[in-house]
Amino acid sequence: MSQVSKYEPSAAMLHALELEFSDEILTKTDATFRSYLEHRQLNYENAISVLRMLLSIEDLSTLMQYSQIMQFDVPVQLTKAGRLSIKLSQKANQIMLVPLVDEVVLLPVGTLSASEQPIQRIPKLFNNVGRVFVVTNVTKECVIIEPSRFSNVSPKSIKNTNFDVIFRSPRIPFRVMYLALNRFTSDPKTRRYLFPHVNTPKISSNSGRLSLINADIQSNPEQLEAIQQIVAGPNPEVPYILFGPPGTGKTTTIVEAILQVYLTGRGRILVSIGSNAACDVITLKLIQHIEKDKRLQSLQSGESGLLRLISATQFKKHVKSIHPAVLKYSNYEENRRKKTKSRTGLKKIDLAKYKIVVATLCLSGLRAARSLVKFTHIFIDEAASVSEPETLLAIAGIKNDNCHVILSGDHQQLGPVVKSKRAKSLGLDHSAMERLLLHKMYEVNEKGQYDRTVQSRLRRSYRAHPEIIGLYNKLFYNGNLIPMAPMAQVNQAANWSMLADGKFPILFQATHGETEIETNSTSSFNMLEAQMVCWYVLSLLKDGLGGVKVEQNHIGIVTPYLAQYQLLKRMLRVIKQESVEVGTVERFQGREKPIMIASLVSSFSGASFLSNPRRINVLLSRAKLLLILIGNPITLGKNQNFKFIIDQCKAHGNVQYKMNKIKDDSIVDLLKNLKLQDIKDEEMTSSQSSLDSI
Where does the record place the DNA2/NAM7 helicase helicase domain (predicted)? Predict the structure, then answer.
C-alpha cells in the first residue's frame, strides 16, 4: 500500500465538513455538483466529479470518527504477553477499531491539543512522526497493540510511559477507490461503457450448443440462456447483467458461465466480489467442478489454472478459517521452509499465468490493475451490494476494449454499505447495477420482455416453500418468481401444532412488550420478544415439527437491531443453545436456514430499520421450511409491507396471541441485569465489515 497515495482530504473538503456538507458549500467546492444536486442523475459528464465528491464525504465522515477518539497524556502498560495496552476513554468505541488493520501512533505528551475541535485534528491522522503500532486486539476497556512490521521499537522500552495517542485507519479501500477514479478519468472508453448510449450496436454471435458441466442447468431456460449469452458475448459495448433473486441459482449460473468461457480456449477471467467470504464460496464451487470434470483438469492447482488471490490482511486475520481446498488454489505458501518463507506467508505470483483469478474488489484494484493481464471477462458478483466506486475497482485500469463485464446480483436485496448519512442521501448507496437497470437499454416492458443480449432475469426459485416465496414474490418481484423446490423437501412444517394452516408455514406471533434503549445507546431491544424467541427455540428442539426432528443448526434468528442481537446471543448461551445462529439482517444476506425466527423489536411507530423494503425482503427470504415473525401487530401494521404479511397470516389463521414464556429463573435474572450500553446500530456496518473487503 505504500505505493498508493494517502489521498489526504483537501482544505476545501475539510471546510465543507465544518458546514456539514451543505448543498451550498458543495456547489462552491465543485461547480459540476450543482447540476447533480438538481437532478440527482449520474451521467458520462459528471460521473468522476460526483463519485469523487461522494467518496470524499464518506471518507471524511470516517476520519472524523477517528479524530474524535484521540487521547491525551494516557499511560501505556506492558501486558503479560509482552504487548502494550492502552485504556480506552469513554468516547472511544471499541467496535470501531479493527484488529490487524488499524494503527496507533504514540506521540510525546503535549504534541496534540485537547482543546482542538475534532475537525482540526483530522490532518494529524496523517502525521508520520511518532511510534507506529498495530492494533492486535480490542476489549471494552482497552486496546492491545504491538510494533508495526518494520518498527524496531521494543515494548519494554516504553512501558509505564504516558503518551498522546492517535488511532487511525490505513483507509485501504478508500485509497484504492480514489486510485480507480483517477484511472477512470483517463479512460473515456470505459466510462462510456458504464454510461452507454441507447442505440449501442450489437454483434450477432452464436456460441453454439454448450456441453454443460452442470447438467441440471439444461432444465432451467433462464440459466441456460444467460450462460449462452455470456459465452457468446453478443454486445461488447455494455455490461451484461444477471438478475438473480433469492434461490434462483445465480451463483450456479455464474460458476457454469465462468467454466464455459474457460472451455472456449480464449478466456482469461477475473472474478471479483466485495467480500472475502463470498470469494471463498465461489472458489469452492469452481473447485468442486474442476476436480471432477476431466475437461477442467488443466485448471487444477498450478501456474495456469485457478487462483484465489488472498491479501496479506486476510491471511493474517482469517487464514485458520479459510477452507483447505481454497488455500490449495491460493497464493498461500503451503510448504514454506524456515529460511525462505516470506514475511507475509504469501508467495509472489504473476497473474498473467492464470486463466481464472478470484479476488475481492479491493485487491483487484490493487493487484489486477497493476498487472499486464488482458482479461477477456470480468465477473462482478453481488454487484447490487457495492457502490459505484467499489465497482470501478475491478474495471478501471483493468478492462480493455475486448473485455466483457458481467454484473450479477439482486438490487431488491440490501444495497451498498454507506455509513455517512449525507453521502447516503446524495446517492452513494446506489450501485452501478441498479443504475444500469434503470437505463432504457435494460428496460422490461409490460409483457415482461427485454433485450436478452444485455441481461437475463432468473425466475425459478429452488429455495423455499411456495407460500414463503409467495410473500416476497408479491411484495418485491411483481409475481415473476416460479417456486420450484420439491414439496417433499420444503413441506416439513405441515404438521407443526402451532400452525392452524399447515399449508401456509408462516406464523405471526403477536407481542406487546416494551421496546427499550439502554444508556449511551441508540439500538433497541425488547426483552419480551427475546423470551418468546427462546421459547420457540426450545419448543422446536424438544418437540420438532410434527414428527420432523429439529437440530440447533436448522434454526436461524434474525433481528434488525444490534442490541436485540446481543441480548439473544446471551440468552441462548444461558439456555445452552449456542449453536442456534443469530444475526442482524446484514449478516444473513445471501444465507438460508430451514427455520427462521425474526424478532422485529417494533413497539413504536416510525421504525426506520423496518421501513427499508430491502431489509424486509432479506428478512423474509432466508427461510426454507418455516418462517416465524415476532412483533407488535399494531406498530408493524402501519407499514404496508408488514400489513400485507400480517393479513396473510390472519387469513390462514396463523396468528398466535398466546404469550408463551420460559419459566427458567436464570433467564429471568439475566434479563434484569443485562447492560447493553454503547450500542449503535450504525456499527453493524462499520469498519468491522469493511475488513472482509480487503
Answer: 333-421
Instruction: State the pLDDT at residue 664.
Output: 58
Element (H, E) at 427: none
- Exposure of 198 by Cβ count < 10 A (0-12 exposed, 13-18 middle, 19+ buried)? exposed
Q: CB of 290 within 8 A of CB of 270?
A: no
Q: Are strands 306-308 and 356-360 parallel, antiparallel or unpaired?
A: parallel
pLDDT the model gives residue 652: 98
Q: Using the predicted structure, report yes or no on whether residue 28 has a pLDDT greater than 60.
A: yes
507, 392: one domain: no
The average pLDDT across 215-233 equals 95
Query: Looking at the domain assignment, is residue 49 inside a domain?
Result: no
Stated length of the chain: 694
Instruction: Kindly state whether residues 413 and 497 are assigned to the same domain.
Output: no
647 and 513 in a single domain? The answer is yes
Residues 245 and 381 in one domain: yes
Q: Judge whether 291 and 301 are in contact, CB under 8 Å.
A: no
Boundary residue ending a domain (458, 483, 513): 458
Residues 546 and 622 both lie in one domain:
yes
- For residue 209, count other CB atoms closer than 10 A to its CB: 7
pLDDT band at 95 (very low <50, low <70, confident <90, very high): low
Per-residue pLDDT tens over the stretch 497-518: 999 999 999 999 999 877 777 6
Task: Clarify whether residues 505 and 388 are in a common domain.
Answer: no
Spatial distance between the Cα atoms of 198 and 398, rounded to a whole number of angstroms: 25
Q: Does residue 340 have a pLDDT over 50?
A: no
Collapsing DSSP to helix, strand or coil, 131 comes out as strand
Look up cell 450500553; give the residue: 677
Nearest CA to 85 among 149, 141, 8, 14? 141
Q: Give pLDDT tens digits for 244-268.
A: 999 999 999 999 999 999 999 888 9
* Residue 684 and residue 587 in one domain: yes
Owning domain of residue 220: 174-274+293-299+360-458
2 to 138, 150, 551, 692: CA distances (angstroms): 26, 12, 49, 20
Q: Residue 339 — pLDDT band, cuts 50, 70, 90?
A: very low
238 with 253, same domain?
Answer: yes
Q: Which of 55, 247, 77, 51 is nearest to 160 (CA)?
A: 77
Q: Which residues contact 477 (CB under 8 A, 6 or more apart)?
A: 245, 412
Nearest to 434 by CA among 420, 413, 453: 413
* H-type alpha helices, 161-220: 172-185, 188-194
**Is 19 part of a structural domain of the chain?**
no
pLDDT average, residue stretch 402-425: 95
Residue 586 lies in a domain: yes
What mean pLDDT, rounded, does the chain reach?
A: 88
Q: What is the reported pLDDT for 204?
A: 58
Alpha helices in 477-526 (DSSP H): 487-490
Nine-digit cell string for 173:
479501500
Asked, for residue 536, whether it belongs to a domain, the answer is yes
- Predicted model pTM: 0.92
Q: Which of 326, 316, 245, 253 is nearest to 288 (CA)?
A: 326
The structural domain count of the chain equals 3
